[in-house]
Write a structure and sequence with these properties.
- By secondary structure, this protein is α/β, with parallel strands linked by helices.
- It has three domains: 204 residues; 75 residues, Cation efflux protein, cytoplasmic domain (Alpha-Beta Plaits, 2-Layer Sandwich); 108 residues, Dinitrogenase iron-molybdenum cofactor biosynthesis domain (Nucleotidyltransferase, domain 5), CATH 3.30.420.130.
- 57% of the residues lie in helices and 16% in strands.
- Strands 6-5-4-7-8 form a five-stranded mixed sheet, sandwiched between helices.
- Helix 3 runs antiparallel to helix 6 and helix 3 runs parallel beside helix 7.
- The longest helix has 30 residues.
- The two termini are 23 Å apart.
- Zinc ion binds next to helix 3 and helix 6.
- The site of zinc ion (ZN) has 5 residues, from helix 3 and helix 6.
Amino acid sequence: MVKNQDFSRKNTDPSTIAFYSTLLNILVAGAKGILAWLSGSAALLADTIHGFSDTFASLLVLAGIWLSKRKSEAFPWGLYKVENFVALVSAGLIFFAGYEIVHYVFKPEKTLILGHFYSSLFGLLAIILAISIFSRFEAKKAKALNSPSLRADASHWYSDIASTALVLLALLGARIGYPILDRVAALIMVGVIAKVGWDILKDSMRTLLDASVDPITLDRIRNVIRRFSQVREIKSIQARNSGRFVFVRTDLAFGIKKLAQAHELSEEIEKSILKEIPQVDQVTIHYEPVKKDFLVYALPVEEDKKRLSDHFGDAPYFYLVRISAEGHTIQEEKILRNPYVREEKGKGIKVSEWLLQNGVDSIYSRKTFDGKGPSYVFSNADVEVIITEDQTIDEIHQKLTALEVN
Ligand SMILES: [Zn+2]
């Protein structure tokens, strides 16, 4: 019973929105490239390269998210190094493109007359509009999903609006008689390109330097998980840096058997980690119920401590027996006095809860429960209620210790 958290959230997954963002990046950079070619604007050419550098950067982040979701057994650490190698190469290419722009700007023989003014003007306005709509959508999603990487991406889009507006102003300036403004804007854009290249370089160096997350952060994650009492065991916990962000994967054993409750618990744990440790961007929780190597059965018994009682809440004693899962041998037996036998109200529920506290897995009863209380408590806790015709503890003993249990 292993369940992956990501499946249920596919439609609102941060990586889906990151994918759309990358797609828009490619479209915008492509459109700017065409406009640069039509107009001959150096600023637009520089902004095109800026756009493709951004695309490179976001593809690297997507690759990081994709890799972080894979099991490290199936995908050896070597792949993460490939990601870093690609980052280094693309940073190099970006710096080279920036250098080429500078070179182009200072070429004296180049004509400064820009063509296709109106296509460029309306093209750039359309691009600004598209980015504005998407970045607002992304910022909203970032808030809803509590995703730092989406938030960072949305604010990057805001800065891209500024750079596109700068190109637009340079275009207008060139139109009214200051063609040099196009070159100035191109040089500013080279600064932006260099920053993108530097960020890629810095992030990949960081990831190379601390591929695994620092022990303090790991401890904080562990402490958040430990606060949930139903978590019986933290089987493994892995965290990985991708740029500024941390991806967490953990295998847990829960002390609950019901799938719906386990799912709810895993979501609560995920939310708490995301909320309390801000640098964590994604949490993947795998869980399964704790495996028991024994089962505890409870039987209501009469005063003679031999015969089964027809009552449940009114039974004077309960006989509890612990049977090993393998071999069906009796590990422990005890007879407990029903502490609630004299209770006025809610006797059934109180007895049921008391049995749960004693670790009971199955109940034998001669009758179905009258009130809904005990049935509700037991079905909620996944405790099996077995209706039996047997009269005595001995008869049930024989069944339990036979190789086939019920
Ligand atoms: Zn940018």
